[in-house]
Amino acid sequence: MAMHHYLRLTFILLFVITSCFCIYFIIKKRRNRKAPKLLSEEKYNSLMSEGMKEISITNDSFFNIWPYVSELKAAKVLSKKIKESELVHKVYRNSTEDREHILLATEKENHFVKVIVDKNKKKALGYFILDL
User: Fold this and answer.
1) Dihedral angle sign, alpha carbons of residues 25, 31, 36, 42
2) Shortest CA distance to 128 belongs to which of 115, 117, 111?
3) In the chain, which residues have pLDDT < 70?
4) First and final CA of the chain: distance in angstroms?
5) Contact between residue 83 and residue 89 where contact means Cβ atoms under 8 Å apart
6) 20 to 30 A from 23, CA-CA: which of 32, 73, 110, 112?
7) Could you give the CA distance from residue 95 to residue 17 in angstroms, rounded to a whole number?
8) For 71-104, how does the pLDDT look when each residue is reduced to its tens digit (9 = 90+)?
9) What is the pTM of this model?
């Protein structure tokens, strides 16, 4: 009977220790989560190029930014109140068609979040806050 009691306590102890390790690593992973990159003025200006042309928003040929938009909302750069259908304001593509600048609407009038993406690398380079 005593052996059964010690065996049960051992399993409970192992369960508690394993649970603590899991909770520790979950908390650590959440703290080390990458936040979207805010571009500096110099970096933003270097990514601007001549010959930017506007492309149609209804055309779904622009870069899939929705995972990045979710990161921006989690970082509280964008408001969660704005509907996704109203979020994309304009999309611009450079003449070599390797970069896109996507203007996202904010709650404030004439304030935008501009997401710059590299279509060749298939990733967002960062975002820049425009106050027009």
Assistant:
1) negative
2) 115
3) 1, 33, 59-61
4) 78
5) no
6) 73
7) 58
8) 888 888 888 888 777 888 888 888 888 888 889 9
9) 0.69
